[in-house]
Batch of 3 targets.
Target 1
Amino acid sequence: MSQTETRTEGCDLVLTRHIAAPPEKVWSAWTTPDLLTRWFAPAPVQVPEAVIEAHPGGQFRIVMELPDGKRMSHPGCVLVAEEGRSLIFTDALDAGFRPRGQGFMTALIDIEPEGAGTRYTVRVLHKDGADCKKHEDMGFAQGWTAATAQLAALVEELAPAA
């Protein structure tokens, strides 16, 4: 099954999908900046810059470029990095766990073996229902579904044929 499912659970937005590539390829696509720039934002948005330091306290920063040329930087901090299994980052902190004084979400990325591929789950936590609703209204389901499809296409292309 390659269909992406999204749902709301309290203050969390959740996305799940089976990806026909091994977990190590999905992990690599999340933790290798050159790969992350190829899939992270739904087209036609581009990601000209990405920094991912896959260790607790490491920097997680994405720069998105909109079709009109406007750039938006999204800084954050890696909280958990379990190679090939789990990546957790937040925009509430900068690298080194330095408080930012602002923030919107924490993302939990779970990468689990499933058959010959990967069960990919994203859970985005929000401080309250209002922030969750705001993120939902911003297009969480559409944007993260499109980006996940791009992720799947990339890692399935990179995966060796079975």
Note: The chain has a mean pLDDT of 94.
Target 2
Amino acid sequence: MAYSEKVMDHFANPRNVGEIPDADGIGEVGNSKCGDIMKMYIKVDGNVITDVKFKTFGCGAAIATSSMATELIKGKTIDEALKLTNKAVMEALDGLPPVKVHCSVLAEQAIKAALSDYYKRKGIDPTHIVGAQTEDCDHCTSCTLD
């Protein structure tokens, strides 16, 4: 399985790793079939995501997609972050092998879960803003920790 130079760089040198102790939103997603677990922390000032950090347990692609996703939303408005798709994460990494596409899906879901938590903490129902949060990764039956 071949990875792009960008995937390898974000795996070997992940950006924004860690926790934000006073995070405004925390989202955790995972998949028991593949073992990948992503936790995203966001700090919001006004309507802008001023800081974002992640902790990921999983394969190299899971770490790389988490790293890239944080880079893509840091400094962006909440509306811009909500438009982040797994396809955009994959494109920014110059692609992923087909069996690792689920990692980019989890990265998108982790960001949305953190934004959902942010709205819940503000007493706002996030469903109409962020959408229903589901974890459907049944297509991941072929993935393994590598």
Note: The longest helix spans residues 101-121.
Target 3
Amino acid sequence: MSYSNEELYSPSVTEEIAVHVREILRLLGEDPGREGLEKTPERVAKALQFSTKGYRENGVEIIRKALFNEDYRQMVLVKDIDLYSTCEHHLMPFIGKCHVAYIPDGTITGISKIARVVESYARRLQVQERLTVQICDCIVEALHPLGAAVLIEAAHTCMQTRGVLKGSAVTTTCEFRGVFNDSDRYRSEFLRLIGQA
């Protein structure tokens, strides 16, 4: 879903956030009025609104805008969906790939809708585990498939640039429903197709 600047960046919210960012900069020992930082509070406010635009979206409704009756009962896989989210514990980005599969039971959706669903849940304050489940819940609720699978691989900047400083660490989370949960065949095929087996 695309937004106009007016929908994405509320002027009143932007200014209210900017007030607090100016104070944070001051508390960090900076001069919020110096040339390089003068417009930073507004930029940060807009960046935060963009990073959390998913709160204004409904994943199930995204899918329901493009439902089609189709007698296809094999795996539909959209893999390597770029994922950008924000860790709710440190307000730092985590970045990776999301792989989503489902086996239809008479209903399919436009494949771009799968990527839009990932975006809508990723653009919130998140933990990777919850994000994985939310995407899978959405696919199940909207499509009532025979099965659904979601796997996310992401690098967390809160681990890479602070704390344990493990720059090469990648976190993998997965959620399986229906036949993906009940059958090694479907789960193994999914993992093979995304390069995890």
Note: The CA atoms of residues 176 and 182 lie 9 Å apart.
